[in-house]
Amino acid sequence: MKAKHQRLILAAFALVGVAGAGVLGASALRDEAAYFRTPAEVKAGKTIVNEPMRLGGMVAAGSIKRQADGLTIDFVATDGKASIPVQFTGIVPDLFAENSGMVADGRMRADGVFVADRILAKHDERYMPPQMGDMPKDMKVAPKV
Amino acid sequence: MIAELALALLWIAAALACLSLVAGIAFVRTGKDDLAALVRPASVAQGVLTAVSFALLITLFVRSDMSVELVARNSNSLKPMLFKVAGAWGNHEGSMLLWLTILGLSGALVALFEKRLRKDTLVATLGAQAALSLGFFAFLLFSSNPFKRLPVAPPDGQGLNPLLQDPGLAFHPPTLYVGYVGISVAFSFAVGALITREIGPAFARAMRPWVLGSWIFLTLGITAGSYWAYYELGWGGWWFWDPVENVSLVPWLAGAALLHSVSVTATRNALRAWTVMLAVIAFSMSMVGTFIVRSGLLTSVHSFAVDPERGTFLLALMAIYIGGALTLFALRAGAVAEGKKFALMSREGSLVINNLLLTTILALVLLGTLYPIVAEAMGEKISVGPPYYNKVAGPLALILCLVMVAGPLLSWRKDDGRKLWTRLPVAIFAGAVVLFGLVLFGGKVGVLPLLGMTVAGVVAVASLAPLWKRNLRRTPLPTFGMVIAHFGVAVALAGMGAESAFIKERLVAAAPGETVKVDDFSVKFVGAKPVAGPNYTAIRGTLVASTPAGASFTLHPEARMFPGLMGTAPTETNEAALLTRPGGQLYAVLGQPVPSADGASADRYQLRLWWKPLVWWIWLGGGLIAVGATLSLLGRAQILEIWRARRARKAQERFA
Asked: Which residues 7-36 of A are in CB contact (within 8 Å) with B?
């Protein structure tokens, strides 16, 4: 193979690779842009039932209810504008409490309840999900549901 | 006195770095030998002084000298000794000093032992290394002085983030730092060679041990970090695609690409521009990693302080180094462009594809990590989660593994593609067996785990093929290294696939005496009672796991409570209990007590049990990769040869 030929083929490979990666990344990111939602966005109909997503919000005051099985809890996630009931079966992280921020991975059920597979509370008490930075700081009294 | 002495030593070391840099520049411009003679001792002295200063910082932590602000904020006299020592680098300032220490010591090593390069290239390399040190000295001395005194010493310190109170922490950051800094040496070599236009096999051979060495440490650091997250966070996952994990993965990917391309340059004098470029990319990625993690852009256990001034400083340093290197690269483009030719179907060709795939994965992971930060700056809040990474990185990684199957079996320069197939029947057979076995008996297995385990089967067999019909005693060490590292990839891949395909989970609220079934284990919850640790209290559960064969094992998962020290908030952590068996691991987490229906008593506890088949193969694979790279390093650095030559010379001198 001629040297020029070979370099052309290599360059073509690299170009195809870069273009393919770009397309792959962009399409995956577009799906992903819908990944994190606040309760207000969920209420506005921005989510698809049963698609994996991440819900972020504050745990509304007085909303945590423990079920008799000792494992399932129900609570309400709110961002001050809207509220979404959440159900979670499992061990909640240590920092999970009413009136504090949380992020849950899971999916919306058809009846409007968010079923969480995992609740994230990051490693330290100063942690606030970055997506919630704009939420009113004085949201101590969560709206009635 | 200790703190003041250590600070003075740091200033002297910084001055020596300055001297190395100036003398290096002057030598490259004038070629006067006495200038070059300055650079080596200055580099060595700088490394030694910085190391002494760091040792003094550790002394301050060991003595719990609370008059030093850093100690008061990050230590406590009640802490166990190991964590007092580790506390020295479990914070921003101390970790930057550790970084500088390693940077200085590796500069000293280059100055003492590098004999293969031309003198001007070596001096230029040491000059580049000094320029790097100088930037970080400025950062440390002007914006993060670790030796600052408090006007009034508090009675005791605030302690260390309890999550970080773990033996793993003592070794995780230093390991990663050695990896990052090793890459910076590779970068300095690239800059040095660009300056003197000595880009070829000699430069590649001098750089290769550093690339290999740093990559070993990155591999170990990532493997250890993954295991730490696995047992310490109590979530049972081994990789979360957390931004902090990603920024350690990205330099690792760049390092993997670089160590393969540097081999091509060393052996075949090809891919010269690409090797230099990769050295710049790899270093940029380790800078980006440090910047993102330390600047507080990401809030996590790794960002010790949120301080915009520091972030800006690091960003400026990064811009200077990376921009400077790229400018130099552009100026020297003529000197690096031409290399030896090769056909696409050849060892070099497969390594080019390997490099393209690695850099593509790197770019996609970096995109996913940075995109939310950029989007947030533009007012939009999104988060990129595991689905993205699995979708983009998973398939590419599998293709990469297939290239890894073919590459080592091709000859250099030019090979016949049809002959390749005749070398692979056993490997393809192994893959087919795994695939059919899984489809027939595996039940419902996801596509990615299924393909992963199949490819692992192919790679495991094919990776051994280079040793086939060879005289093992005459096989060079680097070949063994390659075989073991590639085999390690197969082992890790099999572990990942098996864990995600066959994991079993049980979540219960158990009363004492109750027995829970998970996979083949019967786990009896004996009870839970409070215990006291050195600086925490805990609820300690007792579980007895029995196998069908009749063996039984006791596990003690704990929920620990760390009191707030000196005004900080109390913290709770979950200590998972692990039972390692040949077939996998049993993972137990003790949750909260469950109030009974009338709310009067709490006799039941939440328990989460996982059976994770082959999960420890993941870290075993990581370890094998590191072992393979180490063998390769020993072969390449020719430590044995150097030692023999020195002995022979000594013997000669004695006779003379």
From this structure: 9-10, 13-14, 17-18, 20-21, 24-25, 28-29, 31-33, 35-36
Nearest-angstrom CA–CA distance, B206 and B189: 8
Fold exhibited by the domain A35-121: OB fold (Dihydrolipoamide Acetyltransferase, E2P) (2.40.50)
User: Whole-angstrom Cα distance, residue A71 to residue A91?
Assistant: 7
Residue holding tokens 């002959």? B419
Identity at B170, one-letter amino acid code: A
**Which of B367, B384, B509 has its CB closest to that of A69?**
B509
- Note whether ipTM > 0.85 here: no
Question: In chain A, what residues touch B372 (CB-CB under 8 Å)?
Answer: 130
State the Rg of chain A over Cα.
Answer: 21
C-alpha distances in angstroms, B517 versus A14, B532, B581?
52, 30, 17
Using a 10 angstrom Cβ sphere, with 0-12 exposed, 13-18 middle and 19 or more buried, the burial of residue B588 is buried
Yes or no, beta carbons of A31 and B388 under 8 Å apart: yes
Give every CB contact of residue A98 below 8 A, 6+ residues apart in sequence: A59, A60, A61, A62, A63, A64, A75
For B301-329, write each residue's pLDDT tens digit.
Answer: 444 444 567 777 878 888 898 899 888 88
pLDDT digits (tens, 9 = 90+) for B145-156: 888 888 877 777
B56 contacts: CB under 8 Å, gap ≥ 6: B2, B3, B5, B6, B9
* Extents of the domains making up chain A: 1-33, 35-121
Among A1, A25, A70, beta carbon nearest to B594: A70
**Dist CA B566 CA B95 (whole Å):** 23
| Average pLDDT along chain A | 73
Minimum-distance CB partner of B387 among A52, A90, A94: A52
Q: How far is B19 from chain A (nearest CA, A)?
A: 43
Task: Tell which phi-psi region holds residue B280, choosing left (phi > 0), alpha (psi between -120 and 50) or beta.
Answer: alpha
